[in-house]
UniProtKB/TrEMBL annotation, chain A:
<dbReference type="InterPro" id="IPR049457">
    <property type="entry name" value="Emfourin"/>
</dbReference>
<dbReference type="Pfam" id="PF20242">
    <property type="entry name" value="Emfourin"/>
</dbReference>
<protein>
    <submittedName>
        <fullName>Uncharacterized protein</fullName>
    </submittedName>
</protein>
TrEMBL record, chain B:
<keyword id="KW-0482">Metalloprotease</keyword>
<comment type="function">
    <text>Extracellular zinc metalloprotease.</text>
</comment>
<dbReference type="Pfam" id="PF16485">
    <property type="entry name" value="PLN_propep"/>
</dbReference>
<dbReference type="GO" id="GO:0005576">
    <property type="term" value="C:extracellular region"/>
</dbReference>
<dbReference type="GO" id="GO:0004222">
    <property type="term" value="F:metalloendopeptidase activity"/>
</dbReference>
<dbReference type="InterPro" id="IPR001570">
    <property type="entry name" value="Peptidase_M4_C_domain"/>
</dbReference>
<dbReference type="InterPro" id="IPR052759">
    <property type="entry name" value="Metalloprotease_M4"/>
</dbReference>
<keyword id="KW-0645">Protease</keyword>
<keyword id="KW-0964">Secreted</keyword>
Length: 107, 383
């Protein structure tokens, strides 16, 4: 399973943080990979609409994440998650992705 | 009299008209001049709005609230307790003492300073002009790297501690979020492309004014930074943005380099970030900084008033360009201060960021059709 993750928006624009990241679960520690797989499954990611969360017209400075997942069977689906994301499994999936990003960033 | 005990602010208030009239009749010569100016602005905008299309709705918005002269500041800070379950638990309400939780107390003070700027200087009663309670939600999420306005409330993360400190640490960021609420209630500015960058810039301008007023800084003393203290020591940067020198706030291996342009010739065309709203806002930010600096004194006194009047101008459209906004600031300067130094300073400020406001075109484009519309399409009104 491969996950593409892109962060946009927020209080400021940081070019370094806006770059899309790709996570190959095969390259992650097994526990992290398993946790990600579980949240993808429990969030029913492949059944989610293309945009989740937020309000379409109001608000400002909200972060928007584009998550694209391709599973081993070749299924591919993209979801835009706009803050505040309330669904707990999607929320948890986002946090795991951010954690993986931070760990990757740390030397 | 109209603005608590800080007497030196009382004459700035654009209060319910009868209060301004009172000052105009009984105040000192200086107070009278300011009050009369206030009354004239007020009436101009009321006239513009009432004569524009959708008059019943505009008129409804103009019905003054209760004739209050007391502050209606009503803050509530909620602790979301490192979850996303908004609203969270009430942690501090209006008038209560410090809690010892820095995020709660900073949010409380920041919301108060923002309310005070709008009320004591501009006579605006909260975000909606009608005493809307101010709700701040702190400790949102886990190591959450952002603060945002969701259309009803301000939400602040604690930051990851690696790149960002807690998002309540900079009072201008709190003012920035609240100003988004004012822009949303007052103006039609879309959060996209140039209009979105203007929306962002207005939040930076008023966020910075909140900080400057809290610290009692003149234009020369202000640092004109947005989010100073928010980046951790590990980051090579001093803030999120610099209004004085856009593009110089950070240059870091992880965050990248501050992408803000300072001049129209460097305008960034992009679909990212809602069409570059946090990027191109550097251009109007710098224009505001230059105008305020050349108008001297405290930035909220003239520059802040001119920009707020521009936001309130019914000729400002959802898809406003930098140029159309610039023209309206010049007309606002004339409306407030007559043709003279202020008008020239505002026009020059835009000129220095590459936006030329010609004398003849200032304010002209959308004025005529709007005024004519009610005459050609009379609106049925109940009396």
């Amino acid at each position: 399973m491969r996950i593409e993750f892109k962060r946009e928006g927020g209080l400021a624009f940081f070019p370094g943080l806006a770059r899309p990241r790709t996570v190959d679960l095969a390259a992650l520690p097994p526990a992290t990979a398993e946790a990600l797989k579980r949240e993808v499954r429990e969030a029913r990611f492949f059944e989610q609409p293309t945009t989740v969360g937020g309000s379409p017209t109001m608000g400002a400075d909200r972060t928007r994440y584009t998550v694209t997942i391709e599973d081993d069977g070749g299924r591919r689906h993209s979801v835009q998650l706009v803050e505040p994301v309330k669904e707990p499994h999607l929320r948890s999936l986002l946090e795991l992705l951010q954690k993986a990003e931070r760990e990757h960033r740390a030397p | 009299m109209c603005c608590n005990s800080r007497i030196w602010h009382s004459h700035h208030c654009i209060l319910p008209p009868y209060v301004s009239r009172q000052i105009a009749q009984n105040g000192s010569p200086q107070q009278r001049a300011k009050a009369l100016r206030t009354l004239s602005i007020d009436n101009t905008l009321r006239a513009i709005r009432l004569s524009s299309s959708g008059a019943p709705q505009a008129a409804k918005r103009l019905i003054p609230g209760p004739m209050v002269v007391e502050s209606q500041k009503l803050r509530t800070i909620y602790n979301v307790n490192n979850s996303e379950a908004l609203p969270g638990m009430e942690a501090r309400s209006e008038g209560k003492d410090d809690t010892g939780d820095a995020a709660v107390d900073e949010a409380y003070v920041g919301l108060g300073a923002t309310y005070d700027l709008y009320w004591e200087v501009f006579g605006r009663n909260s975000i909606d002009g009608n005493g809307m309670p101010l709700n701040g939600h702190v400790h949102y999420g886990s190591g959450y790297d952002n603060a945002f306005w969701d259309g009803e409330r301000m939400v602040f993360g604690d930051g990851d501690g690696d790149l960002f400190n807690r998002f309540t640490i900079s009072v201008d960021v709190i003012g920035h979020e609240l100003a988004h609420g004012v822009t949303e209630h007052e103006g039609p500015l879309a959060y996209f492309l140039q209009a979105g960058a203007l929306n962002e810039s207005l939040s930076d301008c008023f966020g910075s004014l909140v900080k400057q007023r809290l610290l009692n800084q003149t234009v020369d003393q202000a640092d004109w930074l947005i989010g100073a203290g928010l980046l951790t020591d590990k980051v090579q940067g001093k803030a999120l943005r610099s209004m004085k020198d856009p593009g110089t706030a950070f240059d870091d291996p992880v965050l990248g380099k501050d992408p803000q342009p300072a001049n129209m010739k460097d305008f960034v065309n992009t679909w990212e970030d809602n069409g570059g709203v946090h990027i191109n806002s550097g251009i109007p930010n710098k224009a505001f900084c230059i105008a305020a600096t050349n108008l001297k004194g405290y930035a909220w006194e003239k520059a802040g008033l001119i920009w707020l009047e521009t936001l309130r101008d019914s000729r400002l459209k959802a898809n406003a360009s930098f140029l159309s906004f610039a023209r309206l600031t010049v007309t606002a300067a004339v409306r407030l201060y007559g043709s003279g130094d202020e008008e020239q300073i505002v026009r020059d400020a835009w000129g220095q960021v590459g936006i030329k406001v010609s004398k003849e075109r200032a304010g002209a484009p959308v004025w005529t059709p709007q005024v004519q519309k009610p005459a050609t399409q009379p609106v049925q009104r109940k009396h």
